[in-house]
Each structure stands twice: as C-alpha cells, then as structure tokens.
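Subject: two folds for Thursday's group meeting

Dear M.,

Sorry for the delay on this. The cluster queue was jammed most of the week, so I only got both jobs back this morning. I'm pasting them in the order they finished. Each block is the input sequence followed by the predicted structure tokens. Could you check whether the formatting survives your parser before we put anything on slides? The first protein is the one we discussed after the seminar.
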Amino acid sequence: MSDMSGGSAVVTPDYLFIQHPRGKDGVQFAWFVAEYTIDATRSPKWIDLTSSGKSSNGHDVDWGGFGVYELADDTLRISYRMGAPRVFRTLEFKAGIEEPMTGGDGKPEPVKPACALLELKRVKTP
C-alpha cells in the first residue's frame, strides 16, 4: 500500500487500485482500478493500463493509457497518456505535457494535455 496525499494505492501482480479524495470535504473517495502489463526490457520501462466497467454514477468506463514507469527504493512513478493510440506513448515523467497529435489521416489534431503522473511511495507498516 502507498500513501497518496490523503489517498492510497495497492499494486498487485495484475492490477493497480487507487483511492483518492473526491470533493472538498475530504470524506468522499473515488476508486480507480486498472489492469496493467509492463515491458521491463525497454528503456525507460513501459507500462500499459486498461480499465473497463461502471463508474460510480453508472456510466460505462472503457479507456487505456500507455506510458513509462520506474521503481526506485520505495517510490513507484508512472507517467501515462490516456485516450491516445499506443504510438503516442509518453516517454517522459511529466504531467500535462502538451504535444500535437496526428490523426489516422496524417493531419495534426489540436494540441491537448497528454499525460498524467503518479508518484506512489511505499508505506511501511509496523
């Protein structure tokens, strides 16, 4: 388990579970669950995240994210781009990178914030 500024994360061999505060009161929480695969032979190491199911308000959820990860001491960092084809995988550990994206027809699409960055620190229990 990892501390996330009022939230927590659990990483299993197949899934990443993240609980984070939702709302200003600090009482409500939302869960993010994703299945992941890694390729540790790449430099930087690659991670692919996929999630599907129902959101807390009943909407269908189906998305993917492609990015990189690093594990150093007690810190796991994951940077990924959601909703873009695999060829637009981010290779940097930054959030909100703005990069032009090219559509299937080769024409540039609008520039969008592209990445999310998670930094998870292991909490040692007594």
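Second protein, same layout:
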Amino acid sequence: MATLKTNLNTSLASSKRRAVFIGSGLLGSALLSSALLSSALLSSTLAHAQTVPSDLLEISLEDLFSANILTSQEETIAKKRWHLSYHFATSRFDEYYINQNSVSYEDVLWRPGEPRTSDNYPVVPTEISQDVHAVLVGYDFSPTITLRASLPFIRQSSDHISIVPGYDEFNITSDGIGDAVFLADFVVARDINSVWRVGAGISVPTGSIDEEGDTPRAAGNQQLPYTMQIGSGTWDIPLALVYEKYDEGFRWGGAVRGTWRTGENDRDYRLGHKVSSEAWVTFTQWGIVRPGLRLTYRWQGAIHGQDSSLSVPNPAFPYPAPVADPDDFGGEQVDLAGYLEADLGGQGWTARLEYSRPVFLDLNGPQSAEDFHVSFRIGTSF
C-alpha cells in the first residue's frame, strides 16, 4: 500500500491559451468592450492554473460592486443609504477536462498494470459540491461613494475513487467562515440614464487554510488539498470597473473585475490572480419582473508555490491526486447565465435568481470542471 500511496503524478507542462469571442447586437458589443478592458488589465502573460472551488464560490464581486446602482433620477426619489441582502450560491463539479477535451474518471484514475502518465492518478475526486451563504451590507457614504462588505459561510463536499485499499470510494467535507471582503466603489461619471463606477477593496484572510480530513495519503487526518480549503490565506485586492446604461424597456452594461493576490500564505503558496469580463442585458418592460442574460469570460493564473504537506517523497510522482498538484489549477472559462429579478411588495425588497453553465472551457488539467452554478439573492434598502 505504501507503494501505491507514493506512485503519484507529475505536473502537466504549462500552456498558454487565449480565446476570442465575437458577439453580435447589444450583448455582443458590450462583451467586446469589456473584453478589451480586461486585456488592458492583464499586464502579464497568460498563465494556467485552477481556481479552487471555494474561490469560484466566493461572494460575487458583481453583487458587491453592482448592487443598488441607481440612475440619478431614481436616487433622488429613493434617498435610501443602507443596503442589506442575503446571498446563497451552489455549484457542482463532475467532469474532467484537459485543455478543451473532456475525459472520464477512468481516464484520470491510474490502476496497477497501466502505464503512469502525467494525466492519471491513484486518487481521483469525482463529484464536488460547494454551497455558500453570505450576508452583504452596503452604505452610501455620499452620492458618489458606497462602502460594502460581505462575510460568507462555505460548505464543501467531495466524493473520491482510489486504488488504495480501504479507500475505494470515500468522501471528505469542510466548512467554515470564508474570507471577509470590504470594498469601496466610486461613481466617476453619471448622467440621467447611465453610470460608470470604479471599485477597490481588501479581502481579509478569515477563512481557514488548515482544514484536515481522512485521506489515503496516510493514516488518520491530514491536510486537505487546495480545493477543500475555505479561504485563500492571503490579503487580496479586488478591483472593478462597471458601466450600466438604462434605456426604454431594458438596461445593459459591462464590467471588468480582477483579484490581485498579495504574498504567500502560511503554507507557502498563493492562489492565482483572477480577471473576468462580462456583459449583461436586463429587460425591464414587464415592471416588477425583469429577466436577463449575462455572458462572462473568466481567467485565473497558476497557484504560486505549494503546500509541501500535500506531496509524498517520490520525486517522479509527488502528488496523489490532480487537486494536490498546484500546476493543475486554472485556465479559461466562458459562462452563459439567465436570471430573473423581481420586486417583492412595496417596501424596497428585491430578489434575484440566476442559473449559469459553462459554454467554453480551456482548463489546465486533468481538472474538475464546473457543471452548473445557481445563485439566489434577496435584499432591501432603507
């Protein structure tokens, strides 16, 4: 069994990949504009690496930066300075990708008698699920400055298959308070029916990076892989540029967002930097019920450094599973989302339900890919 536990995988070779998306009509034009802004923010060459599931489920910066954006006419009428909302999100991951190619669990699982390659492992996560609950608070410090904060609670579960006796199929879980985020966004230009905002903030490493569980790596509890950690362990800087325009019967907009990681955490690694660009259109002609569409491009860089406790003393194959290899993280993804917003009564309560799926994946892998993402938000201003 010791031989099986130390016969592990090498990291895949780095690859650079870019995708060009050409839109048409209103949504396509907005996406193209935000994609150009995204390119301007990416001053370094594109790398490859996986974003951990808890990171993918971090409280949406679009909720923090874009919530409660009002036209100047609406703001004059509303005069409400506090914003409070509850946010729930869930994601499922159940398929592996190597670059743009889908592969099965059996393709990724190495069995004795088969040749070892950089694409198979003795331990393979299968179905992964993450749920997040969070409270978001905003305060309009002035007509042009809004302060925002969020605190999430994250729960994760991961099923596995392996060749290690006693661990043919097993499950590990983790949960806890995630990283708290504090933001300030500023109106830099606004007229009667449009607004430009820029935002910046700080993500505080309140989430744990010391989660442990029983894995085939050794007897008893050991450090869990990057995908099962609750936080980043680093002080990070979220940034955003958001534009929204209100027209008769609909509103539309685009945004560029990023997260810059600072330094390494206490386990000698940091998660990859992130950049995304998106465009959306919301149809408002039906009054209190407003459907919409959103298209989002996401890129994330490699994990820098590594948690040495996740490897075993085998120079050729130091990693027991793809989620333990820091080079098997990140890549590019395009999501298409449909959502529904609604006003709830006349006291300022609103709700939003969104469902999204990837329509393009180019992942450094083998890497577990997101199947779908669902989010729900209910909130009020006062």
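Two things I noticed about the second structure. The two ends are 62 Å apart (CA to CA). The chain is about 10% helix and 50% strand.

Cheers,
T.
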